[in-house]
Structure formats: structure tokens, C-alpha cells
Specification:
The complex is a heterodimer of chains A (166) and B (73). Chain A is an alpha+beta fold. In chain A, 48% of the residues lie in helices and 20% in strands. The longest helix of chain A has 14 residues, at 104-117. Chain A starts with a strand and ends with a helix. The chains are: A alpha+beta (166), B mainly alpha (73).
């Protein structure tokens, strides 16, 4: 599932970004098959880091060596928000592919959570604000309010309500 | 609290324009901006380090890009 700034670019304001964030489910038995898709020297994938991430439900990165591009693979956790956003994922037809993307409400919530975790990131806040402004009437506000409370991101959510210019 | 003092008089128009784009067009715009950013970054390095040959410049570029990963909040 595509999340992060590519999701906010799809649903809000397009912007430059250094990496692609994906939430994934990789069964332990599929590790070798997965890493086979990213052969060295074109890609850098630390297999020990990847196995640890699969085991401990954390994250690992794949680097495209010639260009320096990075994909962060976030393992799906049992965290209730992860559970909720993964179950609400949507499909977008992009560049001839069916892309699985987080729903706009969850893109906003994830951005607000990152803003809080990073100590008040304006970039994360602005991404969330723009998704709110673009998607506006299509958003499930009750769902957002419920998770705003659970995630403790009331401060930035109230700021969005105050500052959104739509 | 507003930390962005920059005025944005055409903001509603801007939002309307972005809304009219398809999700695919917005994603392509993000790719385009990212590509432009990378080219500008490389150009800046080339100007600051005119003595470096292409492979060394490439190595410097990759080193600098790696520093940006997950640190540009």
C-alpha cells in the first residue's frame, strides 16, 4: 500500500520527495523471493536488516544504487491504526497499473502522526492540509475525528480546520 | 499558530486547479518535480565542484542524497 508523500501527491499537492513509502505484508517464507527482485549491484538490500524487519514488524529500505532513490518498506504491524488503514486501502489506476494506496483520510492521519512524532514537522502538516483541502467534501470526517482522538493529534487537526482555505 | 507568513492570494484557485487534475496527473507532477529537483541538485554540485570528473561527481551526489533520506522533516 502506497503511503507517505506519494500518497499525498496523488490525493493532495504534488511535491518533490526523496523516497517512496510502502506498507507491506511479507510472509517470512517469501523473503528470498522478494529480495530476488532487487539484485545487486543495481540495488542495495541488506538481507539481515530485511529479515529482522519481517520478524520484528519494523521497516527496511531498498536503494537504487545508480540514482540514489530509496523505497522504505514498512511492515504491517498489529497497531490498531495500521490495521484500520490497511483494511481501508483503495485502488487507483495509475500509469496502466492498479496502485494500492491508503485512503485520503488515512493519508491525512498518518501525516499528522508523523508531524507529531517528528516534533512538529511543517512539511508533514502541509501535506495533510493539502489532502484535506483537495478531498474536502469526499472525506469521512467522523472517521478522521475518531482517529485524531486515538492518535492524540488534536493540535494539528484543529489547525487544519482553522487554516484550510476551501 | 501559523508558521508560514507567506501570503497566498490565489490559494483557492490553486486548489481548484489541483482538484481538476486526475490522481495520475498529480502523481506524474510529483515525479516531474522530483526529477527537476535532482537535476538542479546535480547542477549545483557541478558548479561548486568544477574540478570533479563525472564518476566523482556522481559519487558526491549519491552521498549527499543519502544524507537527505528520512532527515528532511
Amino acid at each position: 500500500m502506497v503511503t507517505g508523500s506519494y500518497a499525498s501527491s496523488l490525493q493532495g499537492e504534488p511535491r518533490l520527495t526523496h523516497d517512496i513509502d510502502l506498507v507491506v505484508v511479507i510472509p517470512p517464507g517469501a523473503v528470498d523471493k522478494f529480495s530476488g527482485h532487487f539484485p545487486a549491484p543495481e540495488f542495495h538490500l541488506d538481507e539481515d536488516q530485511m529479515k529482522a524487519a519481517v520478524r520484528e514488524h519494523t521497516m527496511f529500505s531498498v536503494l537504487h544504487v545508480p540514482e540514489g532513490d530509496k523505497v522504505d518498506f514498512w511492515m504491517l504491524t498489529s497497531d490498531p491504526f495500521d490495521d484500520s488503514r490497511f483494511s481501508r486501502k483503495i485502488r487507483e489506476r495509475v500509469l496502466g497499473m492498479d496502485l494500492v494506496v491508503s485512503a485520503p483520510e488515512d493519508t491525512i492521519l498518518a501525516k499528522l502522526r508523523w508531524a507529531k512524532l517528528s516534533g512538529g514537522s511543517e512539511k508533514q502538516y502541509r501535506d495533510a492540509l493539502r489532502v484535506y483541502e483537495l478531498q474536502n467534501e469526499a472525506l469521512d470526517i467522523e472517521y478522521i475525528r475518531e482517529w485524531v482522538r486515538k492518535l492524540g493529534v488534536e493540535f494539528d487537526w484543529e489547525r487544519i480546520i482553522r487554516e484550510a482555505d476551501v | 499558530m501559523t508558521l508560514n507568513p507567506k501570503p497566498h492570494p490565489n490559494h483557492r484557485k490553486y486548489i481548484q486547479i489541483l482538484r481538476r487534475l486526475t490522481p495520475e496527473q498529480r502523481l506524474l507532477k510529483a515525479f516531474e518535480l522530483t526529477d527537476l529537483g535532482k537535476r538542479l541538485f546535480m547542477d549545483g554540485l557541478r558548479r561548486r565542484h568544477p574540478h570533479l570528473d563525472a564518476p566523482h561527481l556522481r559519487a558526491l551526489y549519491l552521498e549527499r542524497i543519502a544524507r537527505c533520506h528520512n532527515r528532511t522533516y
